[in-house]
Amino acid sequence: MKTEVLRAYRFTLAPSPAQEQKLLRWCGNARLAFNYALAAKKQAHEQWRAQVDELVAGGMPEAQARKQTKVPIPSKPAVQKAFNAERGDTRADVEGVCPWWHEVNTYVFQSAFIDADRAWKNWLDSFAGKRAGRRVGYPRFKKRGRARDSFRLHHDVKKPGIRLATHRRLRLGSFGEVRLHDSGKRLFRQIDRGEAVVQSVTVSRGGHRWYASVLCKVTTDVPDHPTRRQAERGKVGVDLGVKVLAALSKPLPTSGAVKVSGGGLLVDNPRPLRAAAQRLVKAQRALSRTQKGSARREKAQRRVGRLHHQVAVRRDAALHQVTKALATRFAVVAVENLNVAGMTRSARGSVEAPGRRVRQKAGLNRAILDSAPGELRRQLAYKTSWYGSQLAVLDRWWPSSKTCSNCGWQHPSLTLNDRTFHCTTCGLTMDRDLNAALNIERHTETPNVASDTGETKNARRASISLPGLRAEKQDATKREDADPTGPAPPRRSNPPTLPPQRHEQAKLF
């Protein structure tokens, strides 16, 4: 089925030294425009706050004062109008906040104004509980050396200024052509056939590399059902971990891109951060011994940033290889709904109640974040829709690691140190992670619905209606209450008390 989708093509740039300096200047102007827009918003917010405080001091209730006070927050049109009046112009010897604006593409400023509007809206929606995920803080100014160097360009699609001049050269509007480190032949051919239209490009810097992410509207075939080979292999349960990146309930047939062991059931964890730990320690120690503001400090900062960027690139490469192999070789990929933020929370505690084994917990947190289970699930979510497969997510509180995959007995005192699962009922003995993967596969049922039904969600991505069985959904609400019409749900320290069919339901994403 032909469908228009937005897809980004990321290329590594190979700019000349002069072009790199120009890219840095454009990134600086994007920061300037963002800070200008954010300053205008903060000024209006401070005026509103001052008026509210004045009314409250006069005896008015704060809730009524908030409703009564109206101070408009300037958005992109108002900010851009004020910026045009104050920017100045070096060609006419007029001073201003940005008199060199004519040397930079206008979309560098406009996209920064849009980003400031989005940052402000994200904060307001998060503050009001309308935004999913963790709380978004009050917007902050972008500082050189701390904020990511990037800018975004748009163009008129009828008169494209952003295009691939050749397979190895990308033209940016009013900037010129930049050589690509890799080949753009695939995108070039799609544009030539009329299957892709360039919408925008985002240029960013990571470590010592420059990247261009070309956003295109692509007309492509989106499969609505799995292929024959995917259907033959069926469903696979995936248990994410630290010792191994993933344990699978079925062998993963690969072509060598993914390193597997245990008969294709265990995906090796490359642990890129641990592999680069010694070099990072040496580079960060050298950075700490430099003087702030010196040239040596900038050189040491670049070295640390380069090492961190290499770690991120290697981690992304491993995750992309695994997720594509799973999405293309199985009809259904079943994973757990892990609370990564809770798993990696510090054990430091407080002054009144200090934590125990804080250093050991910090090492575990670092290892979990190095394997990036949240990013792996995010990639599976969109890649399964690309390749005709589906992603099934098991209930967060179902004890997959403590339950026997053969008879259903639940281990009452299984700890993280126990790497082998022993069942005292049926005598099953197997690897803990493989046992969990089998449970994830068997206790996840795929409903006969499409994966993009657009179910109604609240701000925490939970279903508004609460029908059906306990394991049919994976809401963000507390799950300790028992079903009033049935037996109590299983606890982590007790054997399962629900009939098997109540466990064999899960939410499909």
Automatic annotation (TrEMBL):
Point to the regions of Basic and acidic residues compositional bias.
470-482
Gene Ontology biological-process entries: DNA recombination; transposition
**Which InterPro entries does the entry mention?**
Cas12f1-like_TNB, Transposase, Transposase_put_HTH
The highest taxon in the source lineage is: Bacteria
> Residue limits of the Probable transposase IS891/IS1136/IS1341 domain?
223-346
Presence of the UniProt keyword Flavoprotein in the record:
no
Give any GO molecular function from the UniProt entry: DNA binding
Q: Where is this region: Disordered?
A: 286-305, 444-509
Q: Write the record's keywords in alphabetical order, separated by commas.
A: DNA recombination, DNA-binding, Metal-binding, Transposition, Zinc
Q: Which residues form the Cas12f1-like TNB domain?
A: 374-440
Q: Where is the composition biased (Pro residues)?
A: 486-499
Span of domain Transposase putative helix-turn-helix: 1-47
Q: Which family does it belong to?
A: In the C-terminal section; belongs to the transposase 35 family.
Record's protein name: Transposase
What organism, scientifically named, is this protein from? Streptomyces yunnanensis
